[in-house]
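#data-curation
PF: Archiving a pair of folding outputs for the training set. Convention for this channel: one message per protein, sequence first, structure tokens after, nothing in between. First:
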Amino acid sequence: MQTHFSPAQLADPHLASLEKILRSCVHCGFCTATCPTYVLRGDERDSPRGRIYLIKDMLETGRAAGEDDVWPIDHCLSCNSCMTTCPSGVDYRRLIDHARVHVEETGKRPPVERALRGALVALVSSRRLFRLSMVGARVARPFRAALKRVPGYGARLEAMLRLAPTQLPPRDATEGPGTFAATAPKRGRVALLVGCVQSVVRPQINAATIRVANALGYDVVLAKGEECCGSLAHHMGHEATGHAQARRTIDAWMAEVEGAGLDAIVISASGCGATIKDYAAMLADDPVYAPKAQKIAALAKDVNEFLLPHDFAPVRKSKKVIAYQSPCSLQHAQRLADAPRNLLRKVGFAVRDIPEGHLCCGSAGVYNILQPETGDGLRMRKLAAISKVKPDMIATANVGCLTQLALESKIPIAHAVEYVDWACGGAAPFEGMG
């Protein structure tokens, strides 16, 4: 792609790095075939290539984001499927991350829109506030029909209430801080990301991870001071908030690294894992945190990636068939498409791949709230694809995907590590596993 930046602009190292990414795009259009929003709508502006042209124009001119710039950026799921497909290796992730920050800093959103997005960043990234918001959702749920008619925001409010669980599991020790000692001869010590949403709505995922790691000989520490990794704020263009959350999480884990030491940081929410593995790039310009970020990013392992090399002695066997739904944050961002399915097969499950497995399910953080029409369309497309392989159960590797699909699925769904835990003698994620 030809660019027209001035020498003064290219003196900015950040802008120069983005210009290099833009120039690597050869307009081939392969990305359009795997972009979920383009597949649904067929609108060039709603494709990676269209967004790259838009971002290029904003960067070259230095202009503020206008209304016609905001909606294509907001419509992007940040699924990174285009990066898996791109033959030229265009680092689209960097471009869209920059564009989101530019939109938030220069674009003019209606005050209610800004308030909604700010509230989501605040509520979702705090376990305490998120738990309180779920109480509010329970009170508001009987008024869903009336709220749906609120001009401009009804569909979002309704989507928010639909996604909120009707009942939250009780708080338990997996919310930390604390240490869970190995139950087999000790071979190491790992930290586990407790996270925010997952620890509130599906704490059994972390509990399963702890049991499996303990049985393999690992002490598992839940670090004091760790909460949100900064992923949601980062992907919504709230750069300062996302970086502040990342620094706090880095501090919590560095205290463990410099104390008793860590062999790995295990992450069972692949959306969080994609961001944590990117900490070195996020904080590259921070002279204090850049080396710490590199250390933490190097230690980060998705739970499936961490467990797969180990030997297992399953004590249970299920004759039922699992359809594996691969989260975008795992297959495209972390490039770990095969790890969960191979792990499930390793402990004895029959696993089937689903058609269009590269397409997003429509969750994408809070995308299914902010863009409910597209989120709903992608969920139904994903469930239709899953039904074609006639599974008994569904496995995924991210709590967002799990929540999104469970909303309409008649087939039981659980995290891959919950199935591994069951096979090794742990708790059943739902009844009828045998």
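PF: Second:
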Amino acid sequence: MKITDIEVHVLVSPGFRADGTSSSQDDIVVVVHTDEGITGIGETDTGPWVAKAAIEAPGTHTMDLCMKDLLMGEDPFDTSALWEKLYTFTCMTGRRGAVISAMGALDMALWDIKGKAVGRPCYKLLGGAHVDHLTPYASLQPYGSTVDEYGSSLVEWAGKAKDYGYKAAKLECTLAGPYNHSGLKGTDEQATEIVRACREAVGPDFTLMVDVQYLWFDAESCLRTVRKWDDLDLFFLETPLRVDNLEGYEILTREAPMRIALGEWQNTRFEFSELMDKGVQVVQPDVGRIGGLTEAMRVCQMAQDRGRLVVPHCWKTGIGIAASAHMAAAIPNCPFIEFLPAEMCDSHLRRELVSEPLVMENGVIPLPDKPGLGIELNRDALERYAWKP
């Protein structure tokens, strides 16, 4: 089997908010074609125009070649060898960032082809399932023009998630900081009141996580607040500090009263090695952004060897959700995956891009049983939301 063509699609959700902080408003989707008529689908969570250029831009020397050209004529089964080829011959421009994210979309599509070619779900090719179902958590994004409205919205969403059948939810509690898209100017004390109200609303047997979206500048500012959350039994605190403050994260992993989770923006095993060296207890690889299933599985193995948990980040469409699910099934150290059903999403892309996406039943997600990633593109949606300059 040989790769014959690669389509690259940039998609934009109508009515997107330029002042928002949700990357589900746009997407890049790749479709890899082969000479046997089997196609693979992939996506990644980065700027789609930049990723498109990373895949299609020509190069003039061996340190900065065109990724599309590098894959033409290759056997899609050679995933590890092709990953190394792409990494090596884009190294001057790449190594991290959008180039690795674009590689992730391509690698995801190659695994989809492999599964379809042999008639097996991807997790079977990744080593087989360690579980017979996956446990999802709901990512809750509140709204409101005042802190009180924002807090009430989050409490309401937490109750809805529990009523829907979820056993776990993650609270976005971002009243300040660089990604405070609500425009509110709340205090750490008000955040504490909101998180406490959510715990009271869902009761002690519901798993709660909190994402503050890189809120604090230094570890001590974070600790002054989160030490007051000790009795709230939080499963983890996500991204409390700026992404490159590794020394601060080392302090938090020693002194915070809950696990620290990080990794949604990281590329490659090399950056995750840095996180785990600093003691981060929960790593959050995004399958597309990390470099695809090939690289994600390497990170999962590293985490297993070090006794760390893996809870993947996934905030795009049913394509990335499917890839996360296959990865999660194939490892023993993944207690939850991020998942929202279509009816709880506000993004057209998340609701419509994939036909027959994964579903939650009685609070869990049954393992996918279709070949490859197990999903199909809705070509009507692909055309409807195509970016037209």
